[in-house]
Design a protein that fits this description.
The structure is a homodimer. By secondary structure, the first copy, chain A, is mainly α. The first copy, chain A, has two domains: about 5-60; about 85-145, Orthogonal Bundle (Arc Repressor Mutant, subunit A). Helices cover about 65% and strands about 5% of the residues of chain A. Chain A has helices at about 5, 10-30, 40-60, 85-90, 95-105, 110-115, 120-135, 140-145; one strand spanning about 65-75. In chain A, helix 5 (about 95-105) packs across helix 7, helix 5 (about 95-105) packs across helix 8 (about 140-145) and helix 6 (about 110-115) crosses helix 7 (about 120-135). The longest helix of chain A is centred in the N-terminal third of the chain and has 23 residues, at about 10-30. The interface between A and B is large, with 54 and 54 residues. The structure holds a DNA duplex.
Chain lengths: ~150, ~150
DNA sequence: TGCAAAATCACCCGAAAGTATTACCGGAAA
DNA sequence: TTTCCGGTAATACTTTCGGGTGATTTTGCA
C-alpha cells in the first residue's frame, strides 16, 4: 500500500482544512468583520469545525462491532408434539421429561442429578414409562417416542 | 428512563459548549484581541471545536452491528446417509449393522440372535462402536447416529 | 377440603449392558 | 511374508437397568 493510499483520509482532511481557511480568510476580507459581529463569526467557525470534527471521527475511526448471534435451526423445525399420541399414552409431565433425557442418551443416574431427585425416583418413572408405552427397554421407549413424535 | 438520562450526552455537550463560550469571551476581554492576532485566535477555536466534534462523534456513535448466524444441526426428516460423517467415524460394515439394530431398540442378545453370532461378539462390536463414536452408552450412540444421519 | 393422581424415595434381585483383556482366523496391504 | 485389520469369541468382572413392591409426600381438581 502506498503512502498516499495509507494516509488518504488525513490528506483529504488537510486539503479540506486548507480550503476552509482560505474561504474564511476571503469572507473576513470581503465583509470586514466588525467587532460587534465577532461573536457571530466565532460561533459560525465553532459550528463548522465541530461538524468537521464529527465527520473526521466517522471517517477515521474503525467501526466498533457489536456481535449479534442468531441461532438458526436447519432441519426439523417442523417438530410438533403429537398431542393425540401423547394423550393416548397418558404420560405425566415428569415422565415425559425423563423420556426426553433418556432420548439424549443420559443414564438414570445422570437424569436423577439433572432433575435433582434420587436415582430410585428415576427408576420408578422409567418403569412407569415402559409400562405405559408397552416396551421393555429405554432404547425401545426412545425409538417409539421419536416415531410417535412425542419427543423431538 | 427519564428525560435526563436519555439526553445525557446532549445536555453534557450543551453545558461544555456554554462553558467554552464563556471561556472564550473571557479570553477575548482579557487580552483584547488585536486584528493581527485574529487568525491565531480563530485557529485555536477551530482546533478546539474540531476536537469537540471528534469527542462528540465518539460519544454519540452507535456501534455497527455484526450478525453471526450459527447453524444448529438437528434431525432431518428425509434420510440420506451422510457419507462424510460415516467415513469420518470409520465404522465397519458389521458395526454399522449392529448400531442400526441398537437403534431399533434390540437388546444385545436379540442382536446376537439376529446376526447368528454370540452375545460376546455383539458386546465387542458395541464397545468398538462406542469407542469410535466417543460415547459411553448405546442410547448416546443411537442419538449421535441419528443426528449425524448415519442411521435413519 | 378431601381425594386421586403424580411425584418422591427405598430396598431387593436378577438381567442386561458395558469394560478389559486375550485370542484366533482370514484376507488385504506393505 | 509379515503385518495389520475386521470379525469372531471367550472369560471375568463392574455397573447400570429394569421388575416388583411398598410407602410417604405433593398437588391439582372437584
Amino acid at each position: 500500500m502506498s503512502f498516499l493510499a495509507r494516509n488518504k483520509q488525513i490528506i483529504l482532511y488537510g486539503i479540506a482544512l486548507a480550503l476552509f481557511l482560505f474561504l474564511l480568510k476571503w469572507l473576513e476580507m470581503r465583509y470586514v468583520v466588525a467587532d460587534e459581529e465577532l461573536d457571530v463569526y466565532i460561533g459560525i467557525i465553532a459550528l463548522i469545525f465541530t461538524g468537521l470534527g464529527i465527520w473526521l471521527a466517522y471517517k477515521l475511526r474503525k467501526p466498533a462491532l457489536q456481535t449479534v448471534v442468531i441461532e438458526k435451526e436447519v432441519y426439523r423445525s417442523d417438530f410438533t408434539l403429537n398431542e393425540t399420541e401423547a394423550k393416548r399414552l397418558n404420560l405425566s409431565k415428569r415422565e415425559l421429561e425423563v423420556l426426553q433425557l433418556m432420548a439424549e442418551g443420559l443414564s438414570n443416574q445422570e437424569i436423577a442429578e439433572k432433575l435433582f431427585v434420587s436415582l430410585n425416583t428415576i427408576k420408578t418413572h422409567s418403569a412407569q414409562i415402559f409400562e405405559k408405552m408397552e416396551v421393555k427397554r429405554r432404547t425401545q421407549a426412545v425409538e417409539m417416542g421419536k416415531r410417535l413424535s412425542i419427543i423431538p
